[in-house]
From TrEMBL:
Record: residues binding phosphoenolpyruvate: 22-23
Entry GO terms, CC: cytoplasm
Keyword Acetylation applies: no
Name of the protein in its database record: UDP-N-acetylglucosamine 1-carboxyvinyltransferase
EC number per UniProt: 2.5.1.7
Annotated source species: Maribacter polysiphoniae
Alphabetized UniProt keyword annotations: Cell cycle, Cell division, Cell shape, Cell wall biogenesis/degradation, Cytoplasm, Peptidoglycan synthesis, Transferase
NCBIfam families cross-referenced by the UniProt entry: murA, PRK09369.1
């Protein structure tokens, strides 16, 4: 179990460049299986989950060449389908959530796709019904081995159809889209998720020859094609990382510039931080966060009632930023209700913040009320264990603002989603070491 030691209470300053988006990378990498031609992908983050998926593709027989930092060429012209039945796949396939998106492309191109129950954050139930109901709608036969938790779908040829998804699942929509692009005829997906991750995937697939319309909306129409060709794709900056740096800047009263954020793809994120009282300035495509000398004051709703910050499928606020907004609220002026609607076990990390002196009431597994200290009282350093990626970074932000030296164990969780985070934090003045 890896550990960070963090000496808190130091102001940071400088520039930080966000990595390529993790959740986009997981979709885009799976899409390389849809063609035998070369696909060049740039701005791939060097993080544990993405590297695990690249290793899975390599084990599947995909020819992978590294061209430079974050740039790779993939060619899936000799895929080894026997690997899908191996014990190694049953082990490695469960190492991350994103591996589930191997199924759609494999099913569409080779007529079969298998996957062990995928891993990912332990943040509550993470069902796969949307994915498999989608494949079944396209004509696939589904089987599930309960003992091994092993899923499989098979179909000679998928057939386009109309479907209304039971929920706007991000990975589920990506999976179904990747299956439908090679199906016979027209597929219509209503209640599709439309996060920038998916918009990027659909644009890439269209460059490969797919015919997807409605990109960016919850109604996608896909005219199936026989084959797809190669392309080049560059990942957007990771919007969750961008939000993490905004939270970090506010909470440590630091002046920070987050470089090349792709403002137009940030949706609600800047607005929500502004409602939390954080000053965010747009400078070209950068975000400038000035030093918050006098702290930051949470706004109320127009009628004077307490602000609620909650998640929703895009264009709502992504659930992956709520833990960061929550930790930032502990030093704000005012109070806020954080309502994590999607995941039922993502707020339990607040116990640690309470130990550190934060004023939080966990109302139930989905809701926490935070009463900010307005920097009148610092959080106290402590020893903690990172439960998931975003709670891990939130605890790290708490530790960087706290008085004294904190220890965070299980930092593998943080490394799943943040590239070389300690080096990048040291470059802006943080006192953090990996032990
Ligand atoms: C690898 C990857 O891309 N992971 C992201 C992806 O996970 P993932 O695609 O696994 O998440 P889903 O979108 O399927 O669903 C997440 C959770 O929200 C619930 N749900 C979903 C849609 C909805 O309309 N209502 C609802 O309650 C689901 O039941 C589930 O518990 O999307 C999540 C939701 O943005 C993010 O937290 C994850 O970081
Ligand atoms: C929940 C997350 O990731 P995953 O879906 O990969 O577990 C996340 O990135 O916050």
């Amino acid at each position: 179990m890896g550990t960070f030691k963090i000496e808190g209470g130091h102001q940071l300053s400088g520039e930080i460049t966000p990595q390529g988006a993790k959740n986009e990378a997981l979709q885009i990498l799976c899409a390389v299986l849809l063609t035998g031609e070369k696909v060049i992908i740039n701005n791939i983050p060097d993080i544990v989950d993405v590297n695990k998926l690249i290793a899975l593709l390599e084990d599947l027989g995909v020819n992978i060449q590294k061209k430079g930092k974050g740039s790779y060429t993939f060619q899936a012209n000799d895929v080894n389908l026997d690997y899908l039945q191996s014990d190694q796949f049953k082990e490695d396939g469960r190492g991350l959530r994103g591996s589930i998106m191997l199924v759609g492309p494999l099913l569409a191109r080779f007529g079969k796709g298998y996957i062990p129950k995928p891993g990912g954050d332990k943040i509550g139930r993470r069902r796969l019904d949307t994915h498999f109901e989608g494949f079944i709608n396209l004509g696939a036969k589904f089987r599930y081995n309960k003992e091994e938790h092993f899923y499989g779908v098979e179909a000679k040829k998928l057939k386009g159809t109309y479907m209304l998804l039971d929920e706007a699942s991000v990975t589920g929509t990506a999976n179904i889209v990747m299956a439908a692009v090679l199906a016979e005829g027209k597929t219509t997906i209503y209640n599709a998720a439309c996060e920038p991750y998916l918009q990027q995937l659909c644009k890439m697939l269209n460059r490969m020859g797919a015919k997807i319309s409605g990109i960016g909306s919850n109604l996608l129409t896909i005219e199936g094609v026989d084959t797809l060709g190669g392309t080049e794709h560059t990942m957007l900056p990771d919007m969750i990382e961008i939000g993490s740096w905004i939270g970090l800047a506010a909470m440590t009263k630091s002046e920070l510039t987050v470089k090349n954020v792709s403002w137009d793809d940030l949706g609600q994120i800047p607005t929500v931080f502004r409602k939390m009282g954080v000053t965010i300035e747009r400078k070209g495509d950068d975000i400038f966060i000035p030093e918050h000398k006098d702290g930051y004051k949470i706004q109320s709703f127009i009628d004077g009632s307490i602000l609620t910050v909650s998640d929703a499928p895009w264009p709502g606020l992504t659930p992956d930023l709520l833990s960061i907004i929550l930790v930032m609220a502990t030093q704000a002026k005012g109070e806020v209700l954080i309502h994590q609607k999607m995941f039922e076990s993502r707020l339990f990390f607040v116990d640690k913040l309470i130990d550190m002196g934060a004023k939080i009431i966990l109302c139930d597994p989905h809701r926490a009320t935070v009463i900010g200290h307005n920097f009148k009282s610092k959080l106290k350093a402590t020893t903690m264990v990172s439960p998931d990626i975003r709670a891990g970074v939130s605890l790290l932000i708490a530790a960087l603002s706290a008085k004294g030296t904190s220890t965070i164990h299980n930092i593998e969780q943080i490394d799943r989603g943040y590239e070389d985070i300690d080096t990048r934090l040291r470059a802006i003045g943080a006192k953090i070491t990996r032990v």
